[in-house]
Design a protein that fits this description.
It is a single chain. By secondary structure, the protein is of the alpha+beta class. It is 30% helix and 37% strand. Strands 1, 2, 3, 4 and 5 form a five-stranded antiparallel β-sheet that branches. It is rod-shaped, with a radius of gyration of 24 Å.
Length: 116
Amino acid sequence: MAKQNMVVIKEADITNNCPECFNQELKISFYQKHKYNPFYHRTTSEVSSEIKCKKCFSIIYPVNWTSDIERVFEYYNKLVQPEKTTVRFTTLFYIILLLILGLVGGGFYLYTEGII
């Protein structure tokens, strides 16, 4: 069972008007997807974003964006530096790998000695 987690890589407060309540306190957040498994942790290249109003707590979807919000989004989208796509193996993976290599090596030794 792989778990997925969206990790914040950049957040910024912007002063554009909210299309819902016309407040000037918006927050833009960029997230990167991470997958966790008992054997490895994987950082994917998938980046998503969200613009949220700080007053009415509504999410501003791209359909409701004004031209000002679009310009600010494009600017911050260029600034986002996602982490490199990596796979990091856990200790459980290395333990199982060593066990399998030990069993294969032991079986090969017993076979060459004529015991099996």
